[in-house]
Inverse folding.
């Protein structure tokens, strides 16, 4: 069975994934060595941990690819998952460890788990199952068919939002939105909705938030980030410092970069050089060319995933694929948008490259599902041909 | 996969999904493209919102670091420092418990008891007070300081405290100037103090008076600039290729002051001052052959190291104060008369009073001594004789000589605010008065300059106290002062005659300067007692005079000239002459003795070798071979520091301190100079209290006992 699955291994997904993980290991080391030793730790501390996460990620991918996908659709599994997920989100809100202002972490000793990250996979699997189950009734009787699951999903997003984790809530919310729009309702409505959301965000929400933030009527950490986004150079000594230093990194790197290991900005100017701002460090050290390469590798994964969804005949597979593609895309959008000043900084990591266990394992789980679907499609086609 | 009940999608929903998926595909790809374009825009154009990122980042990394130039050192004639750069520290303690290092180590005071004990040991603060300071009443206090007890801490004390490894104790350094001799021609050397520039916010040493002020520019040098790239914690980033602009250290000034003579003069002047309670005193000792001032001081003065007494008098009275010199002026009157062939030593005149220009000139003994010769008149310091001589010469001739002797114009010593003196010189009486030093004001330096013509066979020499100025960066001599003849007011013959008559003053039966004899040397001298002019005429009373004496020795061929003034002695139980005579005799004798010894055995100047890293025994031998004295600080085998840098010139018999580290044993300090004791104390961190002046004759810590930083020592000085 296993060998058979490997025969149908989707190289469009696996090769970019492995390359990204390798680039990630190298760049996490480069970006963190200095900070780690300045903080009195070993310069290789993050390198070793990230390597472990990548290996664990490979196991997760292999596992998710190998299992019978029916297990993931099992109602009892989903109820258990939902319960644990709910409990975890509640737990971090009440007792979570504060890291950089957000209480998003549960310390499991070996690894810090971020329920917000796990929630992304949960929502994809849960909604794929619920929406596919009721796909024929959705267009006619939307609320009675999927109202309950949607309520639960948005409750989870609300819990994330009040952590507070705006970025996490946005990504989870986006996954829910796309999966609803992809569930089989009129594609015209869906496309209109997507563009409404995009333009609504750009033309209404962002200007509105900027106005509120700059008026100074409400003062909060989140609004500070909006001010920093609107006027980074004016607040370069305060809230805008992250973005300004990210700009400096990209400017230093130019097209070809200053060379691996030579980043100046990682030496304390950029916060989180190995997580949220790793793409700025990569831009500085390896230059625009390598950034484009990384973006292309990721785009291949996303494109392939959507393509698998389009090709899928069953609603479940298609929805999982669209969900995972949305997950990776929004994560990338928020991260690069923050690094390049297109969006306010939301503290989102870059898929497969940023340092971090939770995000790596969750992405691997999601990718594993897609690979599983890919293998099924490939073997199905082969069977059909035979 | 075929075995499970397949949920059949209606073709419509499937179609919707597929088409939506295709749209999703294009939208997502468009987003990726957008991100890449944005990334490329920043990376290629390096410009966001019209901000040039490249130059902004450069500014961020490049820090102009000033390389502070070292202020030049002022040396005495033997190459020992009179004024040099050092750092002082002020101490502060962090008490905020949230101050921790990145690795979680506390950066605040953790053990208040121990900290207070240590501070009490090294600083002049009680343990209780230190403890109280460490426990501020406000709970959110970040750091505390310890007032004057915690300021101006020496390097040695700072290092001693640091060795105790207290957490939360930190130091701030500031540049400081060290004057190891304490009171040593203080107004002439001057002081430099740390000043913070408003423009740059940098603290640097600025000369406030004396040589420190007059030569501030040369002493200061130029700061260098180094542009460095650095990360946020201040570490330099490896590949910065900027070439620094080097700092040019300030020039070193070598003065002509003789350490031994100056130290002796200072202590003699201090005892004369405290004995006579004079309001002010001046004394200058000069090498008659060159014009180099080997010792000079004034009272009141101040301790340049502690600044005690500084508020009393900032003026350098030797050049800034003008006064009517009185009878010491008569030296120039007879010199002028002799030189203009108007002096017949054996001619008689009537002493006592002399009517002139509608007024009267009176001798200090108004009844006079009857008809006496002019030679006797000089010996007895007769004003009438001088008035006659002036009358014989004529006002024009006398004024010409006054100018030739350098009066009424500055000596151009180079120091600030030098006065030139004045004289109305109107009317016969006033002109006659100038012949015995009234109605004309002079500076002590002008008098000295004039005396050189008498001592030096007619050739008048410019007084100077700076031997040379050396650029330490290139070791080039920037300025070198030599003997400089500034005029020849009289002939050699005249000068010899004047010195002959000046010996009458000291050795004559009726001489007024008999107190100034020095056994073994022949002195030519002249006393003076000047009235002090004020707006309401001359003051009266025995404490209302400027007493003075000029002496040259050996009379036949003077090597040294010494001039002392003493103004308004308040304690008249002993005469002013007695106080002045003690000063004159001891210093002049010392000067002459030294010159004699130097003649017998030329004092050698040796070059200091580099001993750092050498074996201590070998180092000691090397220095002893060069006739230098050695004191070892520490008990280790290798030299880690030497008190005088390699390649510097040192007079032999100087004391060199070699540091090796480890425990130090107390040396025998007998006969050490104050400067040597101060240097030793600074190097070892002992707490010194001292009494007396001159050279050590008692020390509270026995030689051979172990000493440690912070330990107190009492030293008594005496005159040898």
């Amino acid at each position: 069975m296993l060998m058979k699955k490997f025969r149908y291994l989707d190289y469009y997904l696996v090769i970019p994934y492995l390359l990204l993980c390798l680039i990630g290991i190298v760049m996490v080391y480069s970006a963190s060595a200095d900070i780690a030793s300045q903080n009195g730790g070993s310069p290789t501390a993050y390198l070793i941990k990230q390597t472990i996460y990548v290996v664990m990620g490979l196991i997760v991918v292999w596992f998710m690819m190998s299992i019978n996908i029916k297990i993931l659709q099992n109602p009892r599994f989903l109820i258990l998952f939902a319960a644990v997920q709910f409990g975890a989100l509640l737990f971090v809100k009440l007792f979570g460890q504060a890291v950089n202002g957000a209480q998003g972490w549960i310390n499991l000793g070996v690894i810090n788990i971020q329920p917000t990250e796990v929630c992304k996979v949960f929502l994809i699997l849960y909604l794929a199952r619920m929406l596919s189950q009721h796909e024929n009734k959705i267009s006619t009787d939307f609320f009675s068919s999927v109202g309950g699951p949607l309520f639960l999903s948005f409750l989870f997003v609300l819990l994330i939002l009040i952590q507070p984790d705006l970025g996490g809530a946005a990504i989870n919310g986006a996954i829910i939105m796309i999966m609803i729009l992809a569930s089989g309702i009129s594609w015209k409505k869906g496309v209109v909705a997507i563009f409404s959301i995009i333009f609504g965000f750009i033309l209404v929400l962002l200007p509105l938030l900027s106005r509120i933030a700059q008026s100074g009527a409400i003062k909060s950490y989140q609004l500070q980030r909006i001010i920093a986004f609107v006027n980074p150079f004016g607040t370069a000594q305060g809230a805008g410092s992250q973005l300004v230093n990210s700009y400096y990194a990209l400017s230093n790197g130019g097209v070809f970069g200053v060379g691996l290991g030579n980043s100046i900005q990682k030496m304390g100017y950029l916060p989180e050089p190995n997580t949220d701002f790793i793409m700025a460090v990569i831009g500085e050290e390896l230059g625009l060319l390598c950034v484009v390469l990384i973006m292309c590798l990721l785009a291949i994964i996303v494109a392939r995933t959507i393509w698998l969804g389009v090709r899928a005949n069953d609603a479940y597979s298609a929805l999982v694929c669209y969900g995972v593609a949305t997950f990776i895309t929004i994560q990338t959008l928020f991260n690069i948008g923050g690094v390049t000043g297109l969006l306010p900084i939301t503290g989102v990591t870059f898929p497969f490259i940023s340092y971090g266990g939770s995000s790596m394992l969750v992405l691997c789980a999601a990718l594993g599902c897609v690979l599983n679907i890919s293998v099924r499609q490939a073997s199905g086609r082969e069977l059909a041909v035979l | 996969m075929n075995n499970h009940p397949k949920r059949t999608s209606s073709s419509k929903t499937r179609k919707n999904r597929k088409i939506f998926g295709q749209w999703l595909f294009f939208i997502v790809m468009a987003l990726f493209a957008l991100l890449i374009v944005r990334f490329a825009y920043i990376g290629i154009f390096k410009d966001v919102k019209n901000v040039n990122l490249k130059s902004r980042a450069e500014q961020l990394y490049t820090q102009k670091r000033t390389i502070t130039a070292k202020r030049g050192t002022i040396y005495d004639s033997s190459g020992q420092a009179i004024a040099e750069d050092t750092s002082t520290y002020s101490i502060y303690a962090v008490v905020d418990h949230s101050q921790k290092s990145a690795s979680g180590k506390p950066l605040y005071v953790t053990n208040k008891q121990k900290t207070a004990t240590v501070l009490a040991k090294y600083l002049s603060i009680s343990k209780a007070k230190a403890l109280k300071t460490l426990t501020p009443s406000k709970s959110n206090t970040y750091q505390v300081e310890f007032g004057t007890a915690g300021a101006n801490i020496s390097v040695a004390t700072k290092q001693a405290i640091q060795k105790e490894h207290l957490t939360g104790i930190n130091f701030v350094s500031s540049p400081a100037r060290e004057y190891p001799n304490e009171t040593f021609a203080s107004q002439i050397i001057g002081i430099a103090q740390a000043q913070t520039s408003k423009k740059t916010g940098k603290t640097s040493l600025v000369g406030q008076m004396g040589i420190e002020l007059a030569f501030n520019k040369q002493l200061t040098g130029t700061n260098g600039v180094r542009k460095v790239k650095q990360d946020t914690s201040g570490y330099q980033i490896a590949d910065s290729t900027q070439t620094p602009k080097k700092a040019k250290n300030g020039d070193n000034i070598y003065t002509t002051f003789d350490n031994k003579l100056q130290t002796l003069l200072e202590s003699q002047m201090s005892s004369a001052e405290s004995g006579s309670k004079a309001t002010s005193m001046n004394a200058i000792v000069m090498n008659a052959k060159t014009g180099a001032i080997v010792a000079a001081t004034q009272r009141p003065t101040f301790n340049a190291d502690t600044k005690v007494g500084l508020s009393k008098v900032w003026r350098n009275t030797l050049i800034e104060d003008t006064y009517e010199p009185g009878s010491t002026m008569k030296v120039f009157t007879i010199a002028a008369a002799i030189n203009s062939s108007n002096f017949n030593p054996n001619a008689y005149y009537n002493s006592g009073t002399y009517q002139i220009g509608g007024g009267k000139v009176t001798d200090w003994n108004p009844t006079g001594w009857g008809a006496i010769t002019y030679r006797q008149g000089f010996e007895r310091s007769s004003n009438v004789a001088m008035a006659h001589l002036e009358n014989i010469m004529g006002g024009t001739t006398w004024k010409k000589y006054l100018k030739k002797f350098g009066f009424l114009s500055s000596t151009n010593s180079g120091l600030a605010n030098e006065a030139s003196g004045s004289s109305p010189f109107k009317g016969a009486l006033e002109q006659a008065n100038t012949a015995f030093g009234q109605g004309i004001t002079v500076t002590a330096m002008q008098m000295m300059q004039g005396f050189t013509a008498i001592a030096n066979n007619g050739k008048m020499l410019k007084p100077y106290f700076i031997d040379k100025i050396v650029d330490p960066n290139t070791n080039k001599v920037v300025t070198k002062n030599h003997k400089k003849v500034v005029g020849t007011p009289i002939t050699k013959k005249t000068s010899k005659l004047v010195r002959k008559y000046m010996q009458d003053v000291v050795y004559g039966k009726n001489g007024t300067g008999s107190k100034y004899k020095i056994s073994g040397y022949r002195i030519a001298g002249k006393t003076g007692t000047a009235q002090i002019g004020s707006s309401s005429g001359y003051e009266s009373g025995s404490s209302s005079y400027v007493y003075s004496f000029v002496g040259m020795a050996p009379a036949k061929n003077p090597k040294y000239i010494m001039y002392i003034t003493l103004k308004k002695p308040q304690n008249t139980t002993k005469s002013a002459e007695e106080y002045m005579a003690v000063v004159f005799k001891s210093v002049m004798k010392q000067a002459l003795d030294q010159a004699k010894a130097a003649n017998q055995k030329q004092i050698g100047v040796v070059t200091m070798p580099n001993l750092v890293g050498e074996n201590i025994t070998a180092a000691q031998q090397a220095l002893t071979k060069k006739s230098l004295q050695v004191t070892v600080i520490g008990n280790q085998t290798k030299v880690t520091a030497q008190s005088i840098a390699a390649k510097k010139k040192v007079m032999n018999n100087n004391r060199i301190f070699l540091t090796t580290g480890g425990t130090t044993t107390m040396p025998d300090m007998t006969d050490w100079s104050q400067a040597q004791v101060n240097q030793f104390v600074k190097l070892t961190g002992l707490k010194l209290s001292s009494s007396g002046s001159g050279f050590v004759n008692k020390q509270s810590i026995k030689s051979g006992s172990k000493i440690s930083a912070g330990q107190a020592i009492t030293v008594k000085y005496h005159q040898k």
About this structure: The longest strand of chain B covers residues 81-94. Chain B touches chain A through 55 residues (CB under 8 Å).
